[in-house]
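Fig. S4 source data, part A: sequence.
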Amino acid sequence: MPPGAGPAVRRLYGCSPRQAVASLALLLLFVAGAVFLHRLALIALFAAILLPALTACLALLALARLAGPKLGWLHAWIALAAATAAGTAAALPLYRTWTAALDLQQLPDLQLVACAFGIGTAMLGLPLWHSHTQARAAQIADLRQAAQAAELKALQAQIEPHFLYNTLANTRYLARTEPERAVQMLEHLIAWLHGALPDMRSQASTLGREFELAGHYLALMAIRFGARLSYRLDCPPALAGCAMPPLLLMTLVENAVRHGLEPTPGPVRIALDARRQDGMLRIAVADDGAGLTGAPPAPGGGVGLHNLRQRLQALYGPDARFSLARTDAGMTEAVLVLPLDREMEMAA
């Protein structure tokens, strides 16, 4: 439900003493001009049109003062229509009395009611509709941010337990058979946790930080899979400070390990690289493992990559892209294209 209509009503229809004096002066100037031109019927018509709008304005302000922020938009619209109708009903006999007393030409009742109600509703309804639309847009933006934060927490919860369990189980095994490799695995695990734990409480990271996290993860996987895994990371120092959402890169690296390395009996290469391309930041994770065989019908249609696409859409809209395809060199390549920081663009 969008925020209450009370503040918007007070902002739209309230006025300062100076504004009230200026409006009264304009009204008197109009009346004086009509009298000077002998257009008394015009004064009667203007008063009949102004009364419903003034009645609705005062009613909405009184309702907003009584209800405060709890005033709902539906109640505001109902009050606008009801007060405008009441003002129109009061204006009709006053208009008849005024014009009959001065022997002025009169508009038909239906025409007068249509003018008074229609103009009064439009005068007050259009600003109210605009504010209502803005309130709904702000609410949708807030909900989108909340959903994005929830997706990030779900992604973090999805990544860590399975990874930690396997790593600790491998460390226990290596501690009995190859203590030096067990120490190496623990060192990389500690470094990975040192980088990953702050991301659990943060909505932002940098390219260098995410590459460092991916490097520790791949080092752990290399100890686990031995000679089957070789990897390469290429993050230019000039791009290391680029802002990017946390765990986007980790999602792609985990995907390469899970779907490229694990199902493949032989050796697999995984390569990460980042570069500036056409004013954008291009990040690629490629592997020569199992490929897209057995993947969902739509490439990138898994749950993890679906969440990644949703996060990109929420964060960047059409300004970011993601693709997953098999290259001519026989590599399965996942590519992220993100907007560059303004500072990075100026430094280019």
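Fig. S4 source data, part B ends here. The chain has two domains: 6-141, 227-347.
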